[in-house]
User: Fold this.
Amino acid sequence: MDSNRKNNSNTRVSLYWKCQLLGWGAVSIYWAYTVYTRDHYGAFYTFLNYVLDISIGIFLTHCYRQFALNKKWNELSLKRLLYRVVPSIVLLALLYVLINNVKWYLYWTVIAGEEKDLWEALIYWDPILLTGLRLMSIWILAYHLYHYYQREVATAKKNAELSILTKQIQLDNLSAQLNPHFLFNSLNSIKSLIEENPSIARRAIDLLSDLLRSSLYEKDEELISIKEELTLVNDYIELEKLRFEERLSLNITLDKSLEQVKIPTLSIQLLVENAIKHGIDKSIKGGIVSLVIVKSEDQITISVQNPGKITSNNAKGLGIKNLKERLAIQYKTAASFHLTELEDDVVEAKIILPLKTNEDI
Assistant:
């Protein structure tokens, strides 16, 4: 991390000096042209004046930068910064005038051999003062605006990372509630088989072991492919059929093109589990759980139907509540969940997801 910070610091310094040299180099071309054509400095002294103009601009602004960094002006609010920037521009402009006047005086007295009045040279201000004010205003405003932008970008990045972290914590908390819910139901199913048929109970334990192993491998993933999710569902159905026998059947209708599409982990498993718990288990005859996964334009519809009626238990259960919250966190308003009672005592649980689902959602 320290090496990264050092590299970033070197990059910023490099960018700063490039801007200084290019900026003041471009500005000083005008003055070089002026002294060459108007004052007839000659090629060598024109170049010397050009270098001195660049040096003066860089010297003054670099001193300001060092002072601002020491005083941490870039961390101030815009209002408090403004109170410091305006006097600084005036002061830098006056220093710009003074240094340039000294440079001008030395050239004409030392190099050109002419007699000039020092005081008149020092107080000469028109138009150099206006030039100094303009140049220093542009430089200081550009400097602070750049750092203000960098600070805003850093703040936005930090907020985004915090949002992602919060989202991950929410998902982890919800999954922590959801997985035990599935585990306890499965253990209850096995418990009922231990005395009735130990061999079937052993098979049930093997199935549960496979389910838990798969669940553990996927525990760090919020999303899972439909194909992988259906593997878990089929194992779960096989586990439950050991208890329900002929009273339970599962019909799956799947658009094969959707097999690799990502969906929230254990979402279909939850719907099927609820269909068995609140539908098949309540009926003496049992029934068929119908799972349909299809696409329509830019959406995926996952529908689970089972015999039964909607009660307060299956409408407000922890699993359904968690599923709704997971969908809201994962997809915001792009996904929805519906639990409806159809004709002929059929309950339908439906999840609608955006079709372009991936792990970055």
